Amino acid sequence: MAERDRRNGVDAQILGRLRTLAWLSRDQLEGLAQSLEAIKIKRRQPIFYEGQASDRVYVLLSGVAKLSFLNRSEKVLVGLVGPGEVFGVSSLLPNATRPFRCEAFSDCLVGVGRPSTFVGLMLGVPLERFSRTLDVTVGRWWSMLQRYTNFVGLTVRERLAGALLELAAKFGANDARGVLITLKLTHADLAELVGASRQRTTEQLIEFEHQRMIIRDGRRLIIVPDRLRNLADYEAVAPPARTAIAPPGSIRGG
């Protein structure tokens, strides 16, 4: 981890000049300023890594940061973060880990705080209640974003394996042979899901069946998770780390 220049607290006037936080009351701005630790991070240095526990929330005070997704050896740029944006908000979800890597695109000044304090100051509610609400409302859309980001650079075979694992996690029932996907899906449905032709998807399903990665039970599929998981490029059976979606320009992922 790169060496960082840490400061004690943030100036409330700096926060008040940020367009995305200008709606906060004076008391909220002062409370938020006192709760944040200011950290200077040099260009190209990491702010956090994917896979880390999400236990802090960030406010970009100056500079530009970037969020990226590491897909094998390929780094996919998810988006840029500008001054005033709140990011690292996977910390607002229960038991989450960082889905993205965040690095300084230019020299940055970042305010770092605890999620419970942030939610309490901004909304006046306990973090646990807010987290549960996010998890059952907008969390599913974040899962979709992660899935499509992960698809970049994967083959149809790998995308289909990941999609079947995800379907089993959401619509699966335990079976002596594996996990039965209770949802009735056509080959055309699966082709749309993974962005491939129906013919290519059918060919791949037949190959999976020959390799005993899936088993047909009438019109339903039974998947063998361990075999598919070895093929898929990511762990789709476990619910992915998720974060909140907020008004454009105010809150970002990570």
Q: Can you walk me through this structure?
A:
- The chain has 254 residues and is of the alpha+beta class.
- It folds into 2 domains: 5-143, Jelly Rolls, CATH 2.60.120.10; 155-231, Orthogonal Bundle (Arc Repressor Mutant, subunit A).
- 36% of the residues lie in helices and 24% in strands.
- It is built from 9 helices and 13 strands.
- The protein has helices spanning 12-16, 26-35, 115-123, 127-136, 139-151, 156-171, 187-194, 198-210, 225-231, and strands at residues 5-7, 37-41, 46-48, 57-62, 65-71, 74-81, 86-87, 101-104, 108-113, 172-175, 178-181, 214-217, 220-223.
- The strands form 3 sheets. Strands 1-2-9-4-7 form a 5-stranded antiparallel beta sheet.
- Helix 2 packs antiparallel against helix 3 (115-123) and helix 7 packs across helix 8 (198-210).
- The chain is elongated and about 65 Å long.
- It starts with a strand and ends in a 23-residue tail after the last helix.
At the first level of CATH, the class of the largest domain is Mainly Beta
State the CATH architecture of the largest domain.
Sandwich
Report the radius of gyration as a whole number of Å.
21 Å
Strand order of the largest sheet: 1-2-9-4-7
Helix content: 25-40%
Question: What share of residues are in beta strands?
Answer: 15-25%
Shape: elongated
What is the strand tally?
Answer: 13
Tell me the distance between the termini: 18 Å
- Total helical elements: 9
Q: Would you identify the regions where 5 or more consecutive residues have pLDDT less than 50? A: 233-250
Integer tally of domains: 2
